[in-house]
Design goal:
Chain D: It is found in: Cell membrane. The complex is a heterotetramer of chains A (248), B (434), C (367) and D (291). Chain B has 434 residues and is α/β, with parallel strands linked by helices. Chain B contains 14 helices and 18 strands. Chain B has a seven-stranded mixed sheet, sandwiched between helices. A five-stranded parallel sheet of chain B has the order 2-1-3-4-5, with helices on both faces. In chain B, strands 11-12-13 form a three-stranded antiparallel sheet, with helices on one face. Chain D has one domain. The chains are: A alpha/beta (248), B alpha/beta (434), C mainly alpha (367), D mainly alpha (291).
Chain lengths: 248, 434, 367, 291
């Protein structure tokens, strides 16, 4: 059975610099895959490529067997890929409730939405997600005044409101407290029952806790892939990581 | 406002019922000017722009009219009653022209309007003036091709303006001419007339170019003129563009003595703004110049510049034409009052009695003029002046006889403008043709 | 945050009161001039409304609203002009003067009043849909889109000025008699004309208000906030932007028709850059985030221009410009936001969060 | 049509291009470096013309000295404006557009109150009122002056931005304000200086246009839309504006040669819109991050 997401020989250059270099990866449905690698390895660029924010120079991306290479962002999102950004991107001037409501994007056609004032199933879903994200008391606030952690939760909440088949989480736990990190791990594990996740993370502790599969990127290419134990035992990964740490 | 809720509802209901029953409440029979009373001043509206792009010429128009009415009031007023000008600012905005017209007619209930410098603003206010059967004095040259029963014009029409200028220039400088104008109606219509005179004089048209209104880039046009090598240029460029045109003419190396510009617009004001060095040597056709040598004009220039209205230090054709409207109004009003009685004078009555009224040599700085009995434009004598090094104009030719205004001179098929409307060749008469 | 300002019911009540107030004016005002003037303000209100919808709720600053407005106005003027042409006199006089002896093809449909009226709205709306569609697909946004609309406006202005035989050039079109509808002549100074304008204004406002409260409105507000983010939620940003730009253009086209009905005149000045910028000023001063606020801004500025303008003859533009700067600098959401803060201070205990919805406004009626 | 006329049209196109370029140069700097859409740019040009007029009329300063003096005066006005208003609006680009439109209303009406609404006369040395003839081609000497001053200004700006420490700072701030701040660059000061510089360049343009055309309170309005189009088409960079002005200037001259001026303008407006449809980022986009 082919993976839910297949990345085949993906390359991306900006001017003369190759940021992604012949990168291939496959994510099986129902797994939680962690994407790790030193800064500049091309993790976020890969996310950008998958979600259509930038177009690849060559290569193909398949989602559920369908070619989504270089499609528009909204088309890819509608196909079932949700994304949380590295720098939390919420709609700062709208209320928390409105943020979640917008993210509930079952109907995306502008003309239908002109005549829609109540969305079926919204209330239940919104209550559920708000409770999950711990934002029930903050629903009326402007998203712009939330703390960093709350903003992270709101964005995670938004992605969940989208009900995607594949979730891309770019550094979801940055700025969270210990307790929150634990909660996030719990939620991710929960989500895995219904969806597939790719999580970009630096925190190896967190990765250890959640990952089914770990993919290591370096200089725009795949360095290693496998279970956490395999990765930790891989000498090349060690070199790269240690070299990186010393340089920094 | 004090009212009970019930009353409000009933009035609202009654009003809407009335409105639905008679959507066309008003007709032109209603009198829209205040009933005149002997001893009370006659209100007239002065509708010019005092701010914005049109303020340059129109502020002078307001000043000239204020001066004229002060002079008239000092000498006994109109029909024995002083005139009270109501001055508004049209802000160079056609929407405001329209709004102010309504305000003057409907609220101030003036007896006549004096206003506008451009055809566009005139066209913006004419619907109101015509619908209210009111009266507009339009004091500037224009293209004609209009026949309404509610306007009187004292400026030269396109057919009067260039009648002498073109033959004069052809005779003096040569047959080949290039037409340059601003890109709008008046220059194009003026050029159509000019072509007729040019053909009669045996001249040859080498090219015709129109510049966007307000544009100051004359490079391409001057290049075309350089290639065409005409003997003179006939210009209907207006406003700020006109000044840029004269400046660039000289900067591009054109020589005024071999290829002068014969203009319908470049008067004393424009020359001063561009600097006399750029204006000197060019020609202008107009019914009036500040330098006209007659006692009435000398007195007019002296008194006007001395008065508080003469702050801009110059008199020019447009001001003088505006000044004349006050006297045309006086004559028309008095004639109407004699015919129907002072209290019964309406704007329309003034207009109907204005046919043939004269402003005599003793009053008119440009000399005797009178209003045509059919089309209510003005019989006048166009003159040609040449700009001197000091920015004044030297009269080089004055028409022998008065030239008749003919708004449809180049459109004989359209008909003839009569007192009651445009009489088409098939005999049908249409009112208010604009 | 139990701010009454954000209460939907309160908003609708104030809107209703405002329009009821406007509706009864003709019953006590017998001044033809005032009625006509108020109707004209209604047209300006419509324009401010359209800007508020597009800019306040969609985040699209449109400096070229004069295009839709002007095209609507020209359509109406052409319709009215053709009403006064007869069998024996089939061509508008200004065309004869420009040596046209046949009616141009694109004037033909305007001989039929119904077709003319439909075209007056349809053409500008279609233009907005196409222009907006093309621009938004190319992801032209923010200040760039503003400049593009400005360029397009200048292009229209130039071409209307240049094609004198078909458009009347700078003199524009002056239909000699008022609009005839179903055998009735609509006197521009009558309460009928006033109510027609008011009815269109009310309809436009209600439609706009409903749009802002619909799911569509929520998405456009999200786009205003961060268009990039909204794409990843699955919405076609270009589609939404085009739609709201087009709806706003259609309202402006209605305004253009109404204006010509009231003043019987159209000229390229309707497409002047300065006029389109004043629409933005009205909305900005009144409060672009509030439909009613923007409308009141138009009433306020135009009223002041009419009644204070002459008193402060020379300094009027100075005052207007200065006032505008102060509003932009200190009150970016306009005068309506003053009321919002005032009511915010009054609000005591937080109500149920359900009461809060979009950031629409509720300024007091001007009277 | 003969070749000589076409050549003349091409030479004239160069001159038109230089006029557009000098009008847009200040705007480019202000937009490119600070991201401010300055709607008052036209009024800065107008102020330049009026300062030259004032210096000449009241102090009798020779025209060629009026040009740098206008640079200083209008630059100072720009500086004051930046300190008093613009600096509070840097993160609100649409609001700067609106606020500067308010400024333009105030400046226009202010000048009208002081100097009246009638046009003023700005004299240039007699030598500029002639033309230079190169056989079949001919151009007015004043147009050559404009061309030279424009070239000088562009060169100056280029040197300043690419060869000096200040230029490095400006470009650093353009790229990333926070990063630049961490290197000790005072971005507030950089913005202030670029704004003043841009305003000063508008002043230079004004003192040239005053001689070429007319000195009026409303004179700036006709330049601002065109100048914007140059900047946007060019993508906000110096090279972009130079190329955009060059191409549109030539195009305008050639279209005007074959058709007429009004139509030439229309075609150019439409071409620019079409061009930006396919290259919304302009000719040469800024390297600065958009997000």
């Amino acid at each position: 059975m082919p993976g839910l997401l297949e990345i085949k020989n993906l390359s991306k250059s900006f001017d003369a610099t190759k940021v992604i270099n012949d990168f291939s990866m496959e994510v099986t449905e129902g797994t939680l895959c962690c994407l790790v690698g030193p800064n500049g390895a091309g993790k976020t660029t890969t996310m950008d490529l998958v979600t259509g924010r930038i177009k690849p120079t060559s290569g193909a991306i398949l989602f559920a067997g369908e070619d989504i290479t270089a499609k528009h962002e909204h088309v890819i999102a509608r196909a079932g890929i949700g994304r949380k950004f590295q720098v939390p991107a919420v709609l700062k001037n709208l209320t928390v409730r409105q943020n979640l409501e917008v993210a509930y994007s079952r109907q995306t056609n502008p003309f239908w939405n002109l005549f829609k004032f109540h969305k079926a199933g919204l209330k239940e879903k919104l209550d559920e997600i708000a409770t999950l994200a711990g934002l029930t008391t903050r629903l009326g606030e402007q998203a712009g005044i939330l703390s960093h952690g709350e903003t992270q939760w709101l964005e995670i909440g938004m992605v969940l409101m989208q009900e995607p088949r594949l979730l891309l989480m770019d550094e979801p736990i940055a700025g969270m407290t210990e307790g929150e990190i634990e909660k996030t791990a719990r939620i991710f594990k929960d989500l895995q029952k219904t969806a597939t996740l790719i999580v970009v993370e630096h925190d190896m502790g967190f990765v250890r806790e959640i990952a089914d599969v770990v993919t290591v990127m370096h200089m725009g290419s795949m360095l290693a892939q496998g279970s956490l134990q395999e990765i930790e035992a891989n000498p090349r990964v060690r070199d790269v990581y240690l070299g990186e740490k010393e340089a920094a | 406002m004090d009212f009970t809720r019930r009353r409000l509802l009933t009035t609202a209901a009654a009003a809407s019922a009335a409105a639905i029953a008679m959507p066309n409440i008003m007709t032109s029979d209603k009198a829209y000017a205040a009933p005149l009373k002997k001893g009370e001043p006659i209100k007239v509206g002065l509708l010019f722009s005092l701010t914005g792009a049109l303020a340059v010429p129109e502020e002078d128009s307001t000043l000239a009219l204020q001066y004229a009415f002060e002079e008239i009031n000092k000498n006994g007023g109109v029909g024995g009653v002083p005139v009270e000008p109501v001055i508004v600012d049209a802000k160079s905005d056609f929407g405001v022209y329209s709004e102010k017209t309504k305000e003057l007619i409907l609220r101030e209930k003036v007896t006549a309007l004096f206003g506008c410098y451009t055809s566009a603003s005139r066209k913006a206010i004419l619907p109101t003036v015509m619908q209210r059967n009111h009266l507009l004095y339009y004091p500037t040259c224009y293209e004609g091709a209009e026949c309404t029963q509610n306007t009187i014009c004292t400026g030269p029409l396109a057919n009067q303006h260039s009648q002498d200028l073109i033959p004069f220039m052809v005779e003096k400088f040569g047959k080949k001419v290039f037409f340059v104008g601003s890109n709008y109606v008046w220059p194009k219509e003026s050029n159509k007339n000019a072509k007729i005179w040019l053909e009669k004089a045996g001249g040859e048209l080498l090219g015709e170019e129109y510049i966007p209104l307000g544009s100051s880039e004359f490079g391409p046009v001057l290049n075309k003129i350089r290639d065409a090598k005409p003997d003179f240029i006939f210009s209907t460029v207006v406003g700020a563009s006109d000044i840029a045109f004269h400046k660039q003419f000289k900067q591009e190396g054109f020589k005024v003595d071999t290829m002068p510009i014969a203009s319908l617009t470049t008067g004393e004001i424009e020359t001063r703004a561009m600097g006399a060095e750029f204006g000197a040597g060019h020609f202008l056709s107009a019914p009036y110049f500040q330098s006209l040598d007659n006692p009435t004009n000398q007195k007019f220039v002296e008194n006007f510049l001395k008065s508080k209205y003469g702050k801009n230090g110059v008199t020019h054709y447009n001001m003088e034409e505006t000044y004349l409207t006050a006297y045309v109004f006086k004559a028309g009003f008095e004639k109407a009052a004699a015919a129907v009685g002072f209290e019964n004078v309406t704007p329309r009555a003034i207009r109907d009695h204005s046919g043939g009224v004269r402003v005599e040599d003793a009053v008119s700085p440009e000399g005797l003029v009178w209003i045509d009995e059919n089309n209510f434009n003005t019989w006048l004598k166009p003159k040609i002046g040449q700009c001197q090094a000091d920015g004044t104009f030297k009269i080089v030719k004055a028409a022998e006889k008065h030239v008749a205004p003919d708004p449809y001179s180049i459109y004989p098929d359209a008909g003839v403008c009569t007192k009651d409307g445009l009489k088409a060749p098939d005999g049908k008469v249409r009112t208010n043709v604009i | 945050m139990g701010n009454l300002y954000h209460n939907k019911t309160a908003q609708w009540l104030v809107y209703t009161a405002f329009f009821l107030g406007l509706a009864v004016i003709p019953s006590f005002v017998s001044d033809d001039f005032l009625l006509n003037q108020l109707a004209t303000y209604g047209v300006y209100g419509m324009l401010a409304l359209s800007i508020s919808l597009c800019w306040g709720f969609g985040g699209i600053l449109n400096l070229g609203q004069g295009i839709a407005f002007g095209l609507g106005a020209y359509g109406m003027a052409m319709t009215m002009q053709m009403q006064s042409q007869t069998e024996s006199n089939p061509i508008p006089p200004f065309m004869l003067n420009n040596s046209l002896d046949q009616l141009p093809w694109f004037w033909e449909p305007f001989s039929n009043t119904a077709a003319g009226l439909i075209l007056s709205i349809a053409v500008p709306t279609l233009f907005c849909a196409i222009f907006g569609g093309v621009m938004f697909r190319a992801r032209v946004s923010g200040p760039f889109f503003a400049i593009m609309t400005l360029a397009m406006l200048s292009a229209f202005y130039t071409i209307i000025l240049d094609r004198q035989p078909y458009t009347g050039g700078v003199n524009g079109i002056t239909p000699p008699s008022p609009l005839q509808l179903g055998g009735f002549e609509i006197d521009p100074y009558s309460s009928t004309a006033y109510w027609i304008v008011l009815a269109i204004l009310v309809t436009a406002t209600v439609v706009a208000k409903l749009i802002t409260q619909s799911s569509f409105g929520l998405v456009t507000q999200a786009i205003r906030d961060d268009a990039e983010r909204v794409r990843f939620l699955g919405y076609s940003v270009a589609g939404y932007e085009t739609a709201i730009y087009t709806i706003s253009g259609a309202i402006a086209a209605f305004a253009g028709c109404c204006l010509v009905m009231l003043v019987q005149y159209v000229s390229p000045a309707q497409l002047d850059v300065g006029f389109s910028l004043s629409m933005v000023i009205w909305a900005a001063i009144g409060g672009r985030l509030s439909l009613l606020g923007a409308m009141c801004g138009a009433f306020l500025i135009q009223g002041a221009q009419s009644y204070l303008g002459d008193a402060f003859l020379a300094t009027w533009l100075l005052i207007l410009g200065g006032f505008f700067i102060v509003v932009v600098r200190f009150l970016p959401n306009g005068l309506a936001s003053l009321l919002e803060s005032a009511l915010g201070l009054l609000a005591t205990k937080p109500k149920t969060p359900a009461a809060e919805t979009n950031g629409d406004a509720k300024p007091l009626p001007a009277e | 049509m003969d070749l000589g006329s076409l050549l003349n049209a091409l030479i004239l196109g160069l001159s038109i291009a230089s006029i557009w370029l000098i009008a847009a140069l200040g705007l480019t700097i202000i937009y490119g470096a600070a991201g401010v859409i300055n709607m008052a740019h036209g009024e800065f040009i107008m102020l330049g013309a009026y300062s030259s007029y004032m210096l000449q009329y009241y102090l009798g300063l020779p025209y060629l000295l009026c040009i740098p003096a206008s640079f200083v005066i209008v630059g100072a006005v720009g500086l004051a404006l930046e300190r008093g208003l613009i600096r509070y609006l840097y993160n609100r680009p649409l609001d700067t557009l609106l606020a500067t439109y308010g400024v333009s209303l105030v400046l226009m009406q202010g000048v009208r109150l002081i100097f009246g609404s009638d046009p003023k006369y700005l004299a240039a040395p007699e030598i500029f009122s002639s033309n230079i003839s190169l056989g079949f081609a001919s151009i007015s000497s004043f147009r050559v002056v404009i061309l030279l001053v424009t070239a000088l200004c562009v060169l100056g700006v280029w040197l300043l931005f690419y060869k000096t420490r200040f230029g490095v700072q400006v470009r650093a701030v353009m790229q990333n304000k926070e990063m630049a701040a961490s290197f000790g660059i005072n971005s507030s000061r950089v913005y202030m200086m670029t704004f003043a510089l841009g305003a000063g360049l508008a002043g230079v343009a004004g003192s040239l246009f005053g001689v070429l055309a007319i000195v009026l309170p409303t004179m700036g309005a006709s330049y601002v839309v065109q100048a914007f189009l140059m900047v946007v088409t060019g993508g906000g960079s110096l090279a972009g504006t130079v190329v955009a002005s060059g191409v549109t200037g030539e195009l305008q001259s050639i279209f005007a040669f074959f058709t007429n001026d009004t139509f030439a303008r229309f075609v150019i407006f439409v071409l620019i819109v079409v061009f930006l449809r396919f290259r919304p980022q302009g000719l040469f986009a800024q390297a600065g991050a958009r997000r």
